[in-house]
């Protein structure tokens, strides 16, 4: 009887892979394979830079640096939280006006106190942006201000429900005479797709040059997949790319991107070749 190794040598590359897969699957509970699986998951998370919130190392800082060279005039920070991102942009792009949006009152007070030195650059708004006007329920962690969402995907005893005011991006732009936005950054813990839906008029007019948004496990609870965001933005002429520390990888959607790992993306008008090349 030929050995498994001898049989494998006689097979095609595809047959070899299937043979190895079946061999491993039948022995999946062995410690050596469990450890290999752990290392493989760690490697995949590392190569995708998954869960890296550090602005200075995850590629966001590089994105802002490239934008600073283009001298943008108007930036939106939707989900500004305590103001870290707005402060960095105000520091690196002093010529830009930043419209910030934070619906949670306590977090907004922290934001206002931290951004006093950039008062001339920042327009603070104590309400959020979404796809609907009026009062919406925000699920808020009393001990961690960075965790607040329109989706109740959190667990624990520290969460409370707050009633906060929201507008659509289109109505805000109309009320304030805003015709173009250079960079729209969205960080809303799972409500990013709803924010984008509130900018349909601006998107139709190609009035937003670039959009930065997040993706992660909260998509399971919001029921908006990365596919939905890709299809929505490409319908308005954008090309979407994953932000990495040293590059932006622009690509069409494929199901392998739907990994629910925390990550940042940027969308650029497909005709904006100069900016696409700079980011790539």
Number of helices: 12
Percent range for β-strand residues: 15-25%
Strand order of the largest sheet: 3-2-1-8-9-12-10-11
Q: What are the segments in which pLDDT stays under 50 over at least 5 consecutive residues?
A: none
Rounded average pLDDT: 83
- Sheet with most strands: 8 strands, mixed
Percent helix range = 25-40%
Task: Give the N-to-C terminal Cα separation.
Answer: 55 Å
> How do the SSEs run, as a string of H and E?
HHHHEHEHEEEEEHEHHEHHEEEH
Radius of gyration, whole Å: 22 Å
Tally of extended strands? 12
The rough form would be described as globular
Structural class: alpha/beta
Oligomer: single chain
Question: Which tags fit this structure?
Answer:
single chain, 280 residues, alpha/beta, 8-stranded mixed β-sheet, 4-stranded mixed β-sheet, 12 helices, globular
Please tell me about this protein's structure.
The mean pLDDT is 83. It contains 12 helices and 12 strands. Helix content is 37%, strand content 25%. The strands form 2 sheets. An 8-stranded mixed sheet has the order 3-2-1-8-9-12-10-11. It has a 4-stranded mixed sheet with strand order 4-7-5-6. It has 280 residues and is of the alpha/beta class.
């Amino acid at each position: 009887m030929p050995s498994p190794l001898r049989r494998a040598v006689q097979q095609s590359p595809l047959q070899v892979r299937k043979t190895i897969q079946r061999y491993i699957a039948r022995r999946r509970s062995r410690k050596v394979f469990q450890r290999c699986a752990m290392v493989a998951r760690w490697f995949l998370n590392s190569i995708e830079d998954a869960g890296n919130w550090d602005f200075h190392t995850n590629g966001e800082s590089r994105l802002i640096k490239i934008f600073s060279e283009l001298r943008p005039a108007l930036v939106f920070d939707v989900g500004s939280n305590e103001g870290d991102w707005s402060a960095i942009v105000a520091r690196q792009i002093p010529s830009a006006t930043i419209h910030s949006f934070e619906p949670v009152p306590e977090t907004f007070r922290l934001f206002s106190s931290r951004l006093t030195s950039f008062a001339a650059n920042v327009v603070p708004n104590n309400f959020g942006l979404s796809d609907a006007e009026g009062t919406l329920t925000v699920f808020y962690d009393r001990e961690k201000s960075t965790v607040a969402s329109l989706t109740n995907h959190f667990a624990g005893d520290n969460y409370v429900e707050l009633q906060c005011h929201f507008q659509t991006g289109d109505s805000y732009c109309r009320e304030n005479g805003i015709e173009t936005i250079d960079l729209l950054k969205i960080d809303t813990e799972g409500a990013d797709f709803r924010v984008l839906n509130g900018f349909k008029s601006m998107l139709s007019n190609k009035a937003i040059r670039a959009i930065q948004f997040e993706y992660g496990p909260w998509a399971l609870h919001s029921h908006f997949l990365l596919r939905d965001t890709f299809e929505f933005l490409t319908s308005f002429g954008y090309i979407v790319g994953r932000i990495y520390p040293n590059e932006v990888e622009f690509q069409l959607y494929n199901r392998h991107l739907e990994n629910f790992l925390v990550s940042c993306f940027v969308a650029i008008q497909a005709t904006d070749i100069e900016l696409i090349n700079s980011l790539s």
